[in-house]
Write a structure and sequence with these properties.
By secondary structure, this protein is mainly α. The chain has 12 helices and 2 strands, in the order αββααααααααααα.
Length: about 280
């Protein structure tokens, strides 16, 4: 689900989009204003396009220009240079098209962000076999979401436009909710657990990415960066005012770099420990 989506990513996959896609395939995505879906429900342009509910332009200004090509070019640009590099003009240049040509397929950059996130998220893999215990299944889900974020770090900077509503994001939510079916928790509690775990996954990815960027910029080994931080903190933090910090520094832990996944493994285990208490309390 990405962001407020509880940690999720993809564009043409997932079991969540079967019926809706019968109304229009991915190849039929096109520009246009947001319209009402079934039952008069308003659908933002990005959501509408992700589900294939818009007709593409009958005549494009540039042969071969499609929504999929536009989204793929934007994702490639974000992966190479970061999300800030993505603009309608820059994507058009990458495709050898005019900026105005893109607006026949994508109404605004905010819509493009939605489609980029959906594409990069991808449909969830199998993750866990039927009958897998809830904890093992949620662990697999969290690690799968972590892989999506670390493979597409630019997604961490994408603005959140609302709750999960694109096919692949919904499919990832489905996987989490199914994983929790055997817990006896009600629907509200299962949503809360999904949001809790998904939020942890994204936050860990943000911190890991930021630290990795800082270490790369310093041109030093992780151990050297940590040791320098420890020396700086020792110089600034008065032991009488910050005795706990002083004891931590004296222990030497700041001079030892953990394995890359250690903090994620520790944090996820503690969160699931808490969920286990909730599940056990619900069963009693």
């Amino acid at each position: 689900m990405a962001d407020g989506e509880g940690g999720v990513p993809g564009r043409d996959g997932g079991g969540a989009d079967g019926d809706v896609r019968s109304a229009g395939s991915a190849g039929n995505r096109g520009g246009g204003d947001a319209v009402s879906g079934g039952g008069g429900t308003f659908l933002p342009p990005g959501i509408e396009a992700a589900w294939g509910l818009r007709e593409r332009p009958s005549k494009g200004p540039k042969p071969g220009l499609t929504l999929d090509r536009i989204v793929d070019a934007a994702v490639s640009l974000a992966s190479a240079e970061g999300l800030d590099a993505v603009s309608m003009g820059r994507v058009a240049k990458e495709l050898g098209a005019s900026t105005m040509a893109l607006y026949r397929y994508v109404s605004a950059k905010s819509e493009l962000y939605v489609l980029m996130t959906e594409s990069a998220t991808g449909a969830p893999p199998e993750l866990y076999a039927p009958g897998t215990g809830w904890r093992e299944a949620m662990e697999a889900w969290a690690w799968g979401m972590r892989e999506v974020y670390h493979r597409n770090l630019w997604m961490l900077r994408a603005p959140v436009s609302g709750p999960p509503a694109t096919p692949n994001v919904v499919a990832w939510w489905e996987k989490a909710l199914v994983a929790l079916e055997g817990t006896g928790l009600d629907e509200g509690a299962r949503i809360s657990v999904t949001l809790l775990v998904g939020g942890f996954v994204k936050n860990e990815a943000v911190i890991t990415a930021d630290l990795a960027t800082a270490i790369a910029a310093s041109d030093e080994r992780p151990e050297e960066v940590l040791a320098r931080y420890g020396r700086t903190l020792r110089r600034l933090a008065d032991p009488e005012r910050y005795p706990a910090v002083a004891r931590m520094l004296d222990s030497g832990v700041m001079g030892v770099a953990d394995e890359p996944e250690a903090e994620f493994r520790f944090g996820l285990a503690r969160i699931l420990d808490g969920v286990a208490v909730l599940v056990e309390g619900n069963a009693s």
